[in-house]
């Protein structure tokens, strides 16, 4: 980690940036361990049934093969699996190779372990399975009647379906297919049993402690004998929130062979082995008075989950409180299909739900002949409509204003299909986003060494947002130090506990822990100073600067203080967590996305020309990183809106586009200039640093803003994501 | 991937000799299609014959027209002065394909020979008559959004995915093929074939033959050429529909027209009837709409790709309007 500092050209650059782009970052599949073996997974080709024959002999005899692992020979070697008859453990994660059942196409059914990757791939191709197939179901639309209602998810405020009694109302159905997390780094793991009782795992994970607990649990081990290391994570978007069957396969395989084992998924395997944003169908009924006062909203959603998991997300949650509206009812149902587990994907639930709500708001504004922003402001909630608490801070109204001004919202002709430019139809759209601003318990350690360098440690992973810089920025601010003086260490279970990176919590949680630890270290310095010099100074007498501190005109360096006290280093560890403020306020981050699109008048090809995001995420700790986060969310949102869909052939229950040629993530040519505007006002209650999160609100609301822009450009309302040109059908008038 | 032998060839002669000897060998040029197919176990040659050292990388002007060696790179041609000035349609089509990295690897011969992107062809657990004769067509009643609307039958509704091919067929290119004994020349338009009863065969190249050269005759379309590619993202996606249009104008009158489509048939699809209709007409929207209508005769959708029946004529109109500088 030390070298990393010398490379940093700018205080606000990522701590891992240069290493990542120069190949200096070591990812979980890149650790060189003596005697490393390679694992390759074989997958089911049917969606549902029983494996009747698994022919592994040829593979076992192939060159370099050490072991072929499957349900045939796993036996009872994994104590946690053997403990009960459930097919899942933890958060409904499948036990790998547990029995002969197939629950979805692409399920891992065997692991080949060989001395080289190529030999493992070849041997895997020799494994043949026969199945006794059963009728499968993968089609949401055709299985709605088999839906279940997860507990506590239905919501009613006052009158049900009151929208129907409104002067103006709209009923509309929205739909989107699976979105697949496609970070650059594939799911990968290197498992190394140093002894029968001691495991080290280099893991692609968003939370090292979640992984540690899971692996220790497999063998009933003490967690302290499992070390999980993940200093670099090449993106995740939610896919690494769970510990998946492929990771179990690697840990179990390494245990059985007593050899270190590396397993990296292929891009194709990413589609069925590490979750996805589930296909969801939604209904919105929404009504208002003629002058635009909302009267009622009904929001029902049907989300896909697997047969062995009841995965839920906050799809309808935002509708309950986004606007001041006397009557609201929401319903959320799960349709259990023969598919793999979904998992949260950036802006989980809300990104899906707000697509429906914010399109419906646009549609109703159009019916009311009102400006979409004016309509939203007319129904602006200042008190949380569900629990009647005030928000800790809410500057959504300022976001509307900032963004509208930047994109020139009021200069547009609001009439659909009224604007052209360079032979293209022009459309402007906007939509809002909201996400919970959480704060988890996190611990940070700060160590000042005899050279005056500060090391900050926390087990948090940095999956891409620039968590390392954020931690550094907080410390720099606290000590008025330069970046060069600070070392950040993260992503390791040997470091102080932190939550899993996710849910836009990290800055709020870990940033606060770093802040508290820095403050505590300064207090400790005061103590050490008083002890060393026999004085009785108080904290407020100390003015800290990058070399040390100043007490009533006298300067001391950190180096001198430690020398005088005879200390090699000074260390403080602090845990930081939320308190009673959570009972007094509601905490949310808000975003507004504005987009401008071009639509080709003959073919209907869409090009996003400009995106402006304005957001209220409290105090912005590192503006450059926050901006990058927003840009990343916008890129993901453009994919969600226009290009990304996991397409099944329901006859077989298999994906037809599980690769990068056919599953279209946006490319550079799809991405316009993106402007990010921050309200940047500290939240007074959330935590000591005033920061709310922004990872999720970066994408929430982007898709509807594009759908709304396409409506403005063409007069065509597409309620089905992604909005491909065949759905716009510009040629049809 | 299955083990294979790798042989690097130094000359055209030794290459065609090897082709005659090893029936299940495959030539490798840029490898950008072949390697993918090998990784997916769609094809498993026992011998890979590397032809990259063969002296077939040239692009040169000759009396009959532009001669392009089979190993000339797609990027090399798209950046070539003569191509840009005299055959801009080819440069436009090539640049609409794939990505810069791929175009730096893709050869003319390899591009001509690239196989369909039908996902049922790629997935060995699916039926596909092209990959495995008589196993059925997965796409026919499956996900067929990308598939053919012209000249298909129930055996196979896959399309030829190339952009370059669309320009070459529009430009009346010819192909020079060679085996150990003799050379033969054929119209580019005759090189690829429809699926018919042998969807496993994409073209008329014999297993002992190689492509050595592509020849594009001189033409007068350079001022009024346009390539439209309609796709699901703004770059790096195969065509839903593409159109190559070339017009030779005398004032506002069309002296000569060339029109071809990609992404609609098992082969690059030349629109002869529409060309004939255009000849002698004045350039205007109505004429172009009529040509598009004529071009669509006999088109048939298979469900998910029905939209191509509307998208294709719209794209033809767009290509003609742009070629005529009317939009
Ligand atoms: C992700 C992706 C996106 C793409 N997008 C597009 C696109 O949008 N548009 C497009 O047009 N293309 C696209 N391509 C395809 C690309 O153009 C082809 O892969 C490329 O043209 C093949 O050329 P190559 O030299 O690499 O061929 P190789 O892979 O080396 O060979 C392909 C085939 O041609 C045969 N062959 C090669 N040379 C000769 C010869 N001289 N004589 C006879 N047979 C020969 C080989 O034996 C092999 O069977 C894409 C490819 C990828 C991977």
From TrEMBL, chain A:
Residues 22-135 form the Aldehyde oxidase/xanthine dehydrogenase a/b hammerhead domain. Pfam families: Ald_Xan_dh_C, MoCoBD_1, MoCoBD_2. InterPro entries: Ald_Oxase/Xan_DH_a/b, Ald_Oxase/Xan_DH_a/b_sf, Ald_Oxase/xanthine_DH-like, AldOxase/xan_DH_MoCoBD1, AldOxase/xan_DH_MoCoBD2, AldOxase/xan_DH_Mopterin-bd_sf. SMART domains: Ald_Xan_dh_C. GO terms for molecular function: iron ion binding; oxidoreductase activity. PANTHER family: DEHYDROGENASE (PTHR11908:SF153), XANTHINE DEHYDROGENASE (PTHR11908). This is Aldehyde oxidase. It comes from Pedobacter psychrophilus.
UniProtKB/TrEMBL annotation, chain B:
It holds the Pfam family FAD_binding_5. Residues 1-221 form the FAD-binding PCMH-type domain. GO terms for molecular function: FAD binding; oxidoreductase activity. PROSITE patterns: FAD_PCMH. Keywords: FAD, Flavoprotein. PANTHER family: OXIDOREDUCTASE, XANTHINE DEHYDROGENASE SUBUNIT C-RELATED. This is FAD-binding molybdopterin dehydrogenase.
């Amino acid at each position: 980690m030390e070298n990393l500092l010398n490379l940093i050209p700018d205080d606000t650059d990522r701590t891992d940036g240069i290493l990542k782009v120069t190949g200096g970052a070591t990812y979980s599949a890149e650790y060189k361990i003596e005697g490393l073996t390679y694992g390759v997974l074989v997958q089911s080709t049917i969606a549902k049934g029983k494996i009747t024959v698994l022919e592994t002999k040829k593979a076992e005899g192939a060159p370099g093969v050490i072991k072929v692992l499957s349900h045939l020979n796993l036996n009872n070697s994994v104590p946690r699996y053997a403990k009960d008859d459930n097919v899942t453990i933890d958060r409904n994660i499948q036990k790998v190779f547990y029995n002969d059942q197939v629950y979805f196409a692409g399920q891992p059914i065997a692991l080949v372990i060989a001395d080289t990757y190529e030999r493992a791939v070849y041997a895997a191709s020799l494994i043949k399975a026969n199945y006794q197939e059963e009728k499968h179901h993968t089609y949401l639309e055709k299985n709605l009647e088999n839906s279940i209602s997860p507990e506590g998810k239905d919501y009613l405020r006052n009158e049900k379906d009151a929208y129907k009694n409104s002067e103006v109302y709209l009923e509309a159905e929205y739909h989107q297919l699976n979105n697949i997390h496609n970070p650059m780094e594939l799911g990968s793991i290197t498992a190394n049993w140093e002894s029968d009782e001691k495991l080290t795992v280099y893991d692609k994970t968003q939370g090292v402690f979640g992984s540690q607990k899971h692996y220790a649990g497999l063998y009933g081990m003490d967690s302290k004998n499992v070390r999980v290391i993940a200093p670099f994570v090449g993106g995740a978007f939610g896919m690494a929130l769970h510990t998946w069957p492929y990771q179990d396969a690697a840990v179990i395989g390494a245990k059985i062979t007593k050899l270190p084992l590396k397993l990296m998924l292929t891009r194709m395997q990413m589609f069925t082995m590490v979750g996805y944003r589930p296909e969801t169908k939604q209904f919105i009924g929404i009504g208002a008075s003629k002058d635009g006062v909302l009267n009622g909203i009904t929001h029902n959603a049907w989300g896909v989950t697997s047969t062995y998991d009841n995965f839920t997300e906050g799809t309808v949650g935002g509708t309950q409180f986004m606007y001041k509206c006397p009557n609201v009812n929401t319903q959320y149902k799960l349709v259990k299909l023969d598919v793999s587990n979904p998992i949260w994907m950036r802006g989980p639930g809300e990104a899906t739900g707000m697509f429906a709500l914010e399109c419906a708001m646009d549609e109703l504004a159009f019916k009311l002949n009102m400006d979409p922003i004016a309509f939203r402001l007319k129904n602006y909630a200042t008190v949380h409509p569900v629990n009647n608490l005030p928000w800790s801070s809410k500057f959504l109204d300022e976001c509307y204003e900032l963004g509208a001004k930047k994109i020139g919202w009021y200069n547009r002709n609001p009439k659909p299909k009224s604007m052209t430019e360079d032979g293209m139809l022009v459309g402007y759209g906007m939509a809002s986003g909201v996400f919970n601003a959480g704060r988890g318990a996190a611990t940070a350690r700060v160590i000042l060494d005899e050279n005056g360098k500060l090391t900050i440690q926390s087990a948090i992973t940095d999956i891409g947002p620039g968590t390392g810089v954020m931690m550094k920025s907080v410390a720099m601010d606290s000590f008025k130090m330069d970046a060069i003086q600070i070392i950040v260490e993260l992503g390791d279970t040997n470091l102080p506990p932190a939550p899993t990176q996710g849910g836009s919590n990290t800055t709020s949680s870990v940033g606060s822990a770093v802040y508290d630890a820095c403050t505590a270290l300064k207090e400790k310095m005061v103590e050490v100073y008083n002890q060393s010099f026999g004085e009785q100074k108080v904290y407020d007498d100390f003015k800290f600067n990058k070399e040390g501190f100043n007490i009533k005109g006298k300067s001391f360096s950190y180096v001198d203080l430690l020398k005088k006290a005879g200390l090699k280093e000074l260390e403080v560890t602090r845990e930081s967590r939320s308190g009673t403020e959570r009972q007094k306020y509601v905490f949310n981050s808000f975003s507004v996305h504005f987009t401008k699109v071009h639509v080709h008048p003959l073919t209907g090809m869409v090009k996003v020309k400009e995106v402006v995001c304005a957001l209220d995420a409290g105090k912005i700790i590192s503006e450059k990183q926050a901006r990058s986060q927003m840009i990343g969310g916008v890129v993901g949102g453009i994919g969600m809106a226009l290009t990304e869909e996991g397409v099944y052939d329901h006859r077989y229950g298999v994906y037809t586009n599980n690769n990068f040629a056919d599953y279209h993530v946006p490319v550079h040519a799809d991405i316009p200039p993106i402007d990010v505007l921050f309200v940047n006002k500290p939240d007074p209650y959330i935590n000591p640093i005033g920061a709310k999160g922004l990872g999720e609100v970066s994408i929430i609301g982007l898709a509807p803003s594009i759908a709304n822009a396409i409506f403005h450009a063409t007069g065509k309302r597409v309620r089905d994501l992604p909005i491909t040109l065949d759905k716009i059908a510009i040629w049809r008038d | 991937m299955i083990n294979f032998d790798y042989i690097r060839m130094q000359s055209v002669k030794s290459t065609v000799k090897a082709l005659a000897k090893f029936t299940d060998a495959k030539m490798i040029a840029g490898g950008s299609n072949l390697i993918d197919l090998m990784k997916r176990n769609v094809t498993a040659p026992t011998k890979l014959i590397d032809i990259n050292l063969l002296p077939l990388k040239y692009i040169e002007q000759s009396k009959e027209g532009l001669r392009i060696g089979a190993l000339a790179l797609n990027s090399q041609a798209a950046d070539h002065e003569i191509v840009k000035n005299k055959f801009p349609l080819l440069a436009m089509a090539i640049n609409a394909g794939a990505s810069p990295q791929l175009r730096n690897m893709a050869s003319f011969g390899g591009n001509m020979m690239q196989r369909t992107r039908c996902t049922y062809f790629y997935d060995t657990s699916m039926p596909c008559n092209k990959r495995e004769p008589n196993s059925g067509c997965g796409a026919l009643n499956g996900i067929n959004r990308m598939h053919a609307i012209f000249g298909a039958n129930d055996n196979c509704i896959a399309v030829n995915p190339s952009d370059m091919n669309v320009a070459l067929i529009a430009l009346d290119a010819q192909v020079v093929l060679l085996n150990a004994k003799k050379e033969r020349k054929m119209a580019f338009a005759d090189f690829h074939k429809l699926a018919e009863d042998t969807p496993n065969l994409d073209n008329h190249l014999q297993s002992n033959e190689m492509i050595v050269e592509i020849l594009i005759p001189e033409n007068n379309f350079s001022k009024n050429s346009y390539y439209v590619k309609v796709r699901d993202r703004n770059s790096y996606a195969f065509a839903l529909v593409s159109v190559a249009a070339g017009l030779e104008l005398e004032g506002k009158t069309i002296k000569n027209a060339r029109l071809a489509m990609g992404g609609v048939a098992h082969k690059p699809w030349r629109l002869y009837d529409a060309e004939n209709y255009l000849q002698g007409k004045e350039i205007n929207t109505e004429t172009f709409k009529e040509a598009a209508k004529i071009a669509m005769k006999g088109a048939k959708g298979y469900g998910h790709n029905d939209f191509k029946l509307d998208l294709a004529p719209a794209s033809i109109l767009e290509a003609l309007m742009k070629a005529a500088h009317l939009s």
